[in-house]
Amino acid sequence: MSRDRTVDVLVVGAGPAGSVTAKHAAKNGARTLMIEKRQEIGSPVRCGEGIARAWLDELGIVPDKRWISHQVSGARVISPAGHVVTLTEKMAGNEVGYVIERDNFDRMLAEEAAAAGAEVMVKTSAVEVLRSGGRIAGVRAKHMGQTFDIRAKVVIAADGFESQLGRWAGIDTSLKPSDINVCFEYTLKHVDIDPRYNDFYVGSCAPGGYVWVFIKGPDSANVGIGVQLSKIKPGERGAAKRYLDAFIAKHPNLSKGSPIREVAGAVSCCQPLDSVAADGIMLVGDAARQIDPLTGGGVANSCRAGKVAGEVAARAVSSGDTSKEFFQAYEKGWRAKFEDQMYRNWMAKEKLVTLDDATFDKACEVLAEAELEVVNTLEILRLIQRKYPELIKEFEDLIK
């Protein structure tokens, strides 16, 4: 018996971007189906699991102890020589807050989508796109060995960093090696850590990226690294793990820990794409490269963009117009929320990856001594410029 079916909105991928999109599409009256290739939403975890708090209110997400592992008071940036820049939540512009159980968080968002009326199917993968009159009109899907067609007025590609749907639809989401960070992370138990702060180590310990220590509990932490792909020799395998192992070995408070989980993956750190939509399809989240290029954080941007995508998808169905032109409402919506910040942070990232350890030390020394009320890229550069103007020459275009 054929399982072919037709819906208004098809969301491919049940991560945060997909679930928030499905929720708001269904909430606004669209018959919505969300498919997920994995058998369990949220697993395996591929995330540092640190998120800010401020954006949760914007999306009506209520903090819940089922997915909050730990709450921190701030963050510390640590230079190669050990200069420590301490950022409270207020100083960092609410860029810190919770360390979460990402699998529980993802399932919560999927449950909210289902509660709003979206249907969810797991172990269901998209194997190709369907077209009608030159537009994307659904996907050919595979579930438990059976292949069938899902036709949809609007397709949402929320299929992550390795997204195939965007490529199949002809949307250019290609990345340069300098716009990819290769990541590796341990969850370590029995470590000595300050539970008040998440820590970020910069410099040659993590070429083109940083090491993070995110607190999961009184004696446990996610300890991970991102290394820019262009900094890794061609054909070199396991470089991120080797850098992280070397870092941990130099820190007795971490090296005494026992690993209970290993996570590997990659994240984009590129400037905003020119287009994330075509006739019949919109990309959202990692698939749309909506990741903060400086921090590699993507959950907040994915969810914020997902809300816009879901609302626009429902309006497109209602109006009968699912063209790329109609989807400019989505393009304008998500870009108004965070495109400028993405672009500024990409420019800052491009400069930061050129700095040596001595420069990081000087910069962190200045910031550690300063009494800051609010920390942002512009204020940081101005402070450093006062003491070490020679360090800022490459950043002058960001100060204007």
- Report the major sheet: 8 strands, mixed
Shape: globular
State the separation between the terminal residues, measured CA to CA.
65 Å
Number of helices: 11
Order of helices and strands: EHEEHEEEEHEEEEHEEEEHHEEEHHHHH
Map the helices and strands.
Elements: E1 5-12, H1 16-27, E2 32-35, E3 50-52, H2 54-59, E4 68-71, E5 74-78, E6 84-88, E7 97-100, H3 102-115, E8 119-121, E9 124-132, E10 135-143, E11 146-157, H4 165-168, E12 180-189, E13 197-201, E14 210-217, E15 220-228, H5 239-249, H6 252-255, E16 258-268, E17 277-278, E18 281-283, H7 299-319, H8 328-352, H9 357-369, H10 377-387, H11 396-399
Parallel strand pairs: 1-2, 1-11, 2-8, 5-13, 11-18
Antiparallel strand pairs: 3-7, 4-7, 5-6, 9-10, 10-11, 12-15, 12-16, 13-14, 14-15, 17-18
Helix pairs in contact: 1-3, 1-7, 7-8, 9-10
Quickly list its features.
eight-stranded mixed sheet, 11 helices, seven-stranded mixed sheet, D-Amino Acid Oxidase, Chain A, domain 2, 400 residues, 3 domains, alpha/beta, FAD/NAD(P)-binding domain
Brief rundown of the structure:
By secondary structure, the protein is α/β, with parallel strands linked by helices. 31% of the residues lie in helices and 28% in strands.
Written overview of the protein:
The protein has about 400 residues and is an alpha/beta fold. It folds into three domains: about 5-45 and about 105-175 and about 275-350, FAD/NAD(P)-binding domain (3-Layer(bba) Sandwich), CATH 3.50.50.60; about 70-100 and about 175-270, D-Amino Acid Oxidase, subunit A, domain 2 (D-Amino Acid Oxidase, Chain A, domain 2), CATH 3.30.9; about 355-400, no CATH class. The protein has eleven helices and 18 strands. The strands form three sheets. Strands 1, 2, 8, 9, 10, 11, 17 and 18 form an eight-stranded mixed sheet that branches. α7 (about 300-320) packs antiparallel against α8. It is globular, with a radius of gyration of 22 Å. The relative contact order is 0.17. The mean pLDDT is about 90.
